[in-house]
Input
Amino acid sequence: MGNSSSSSKTAETRVDQGFLTPHGIYTGPHDWNQHVVGHLILERRLAPFYRPLEDYDENWDDEMILSNRRGPDTEADQPTSSSHDGHKHSKSHHRPKEHQKLNEAQIYRGAVECPICFMYYPSNINRSRCCFQAICTECFVQIKRNEPTPTHLVSEPACCPYCQQENFGVTYTPPPWRSGLLTDANAMRPDMPTKSSSTSSESSRRKSLSHDNPNVVTIDQIRPDWEERLAAVKAAVARRANRRIIMRQVGDRLIPVGVTSSRTQLPEGITTVEDIEE
Output
């Protein structure tokens, strides 16, 4: 009973044979907005977190491909019946049942290497908006703006790791088939190529797109709190600039007795020294 429930729950978190959460290529904190990332994946605007291949050769058979996937198999990776075909997220535009049970090895045919982590992913990988370079979602969510500091009160936009253009963002072309979770919005996505038009569309997509293009997902979209973080640093610097050390005259010496705001009225006989260096 428990295993069946776990398998069903795992299957319901899959999107086009990928997942809504990463597979641990990076061990740092997940400091992006996972709710936003998951929603973008569901809308097919960002590639799912696919299990990467550690190597790839176009002459491999299915068994060899699957044996090179990174990480242990989960219950959802095992061959199953079409139990998830009718789950509550299903829509009328699902493919026929035999297509939903797509052989997972097939999605890795023509796998593309991510130049950052050097892992291989299905060919429907994210592409940089500026120079059309491949980047997996696990690497994409690691990129962020430069953090502001007390001596540099600017949050500079994230740059493309390939061509260094500011306001880094990616575009994503989902596969022509669908499986797993769906939303009404991705039954038909405007301005995105179909299988029959992929060749001509790829040529046009190689042109740089603006960071505010509706088909581009930027770093700021998955880390929307950057303005709050900048404001917090600025506020801390402002508070520090307003602090003064309270000094009391004792004989011929000044003795520090506390810290106050520059707006505080000091009693007679008390002086202050600016607290510049803490």
About this structure: The helical segments are 2-11, 34-42, 62-67, 97-100, 137-140, 198-205, 219-222, 226-242. Confidence is low (pLDDT under 50) at residues 1-11, 79-101, 188-201, 274-278. Residues 226-242 form the longest helix (17 residues). The CA atoms of residues 17 and 179 lie 7 Å apart.
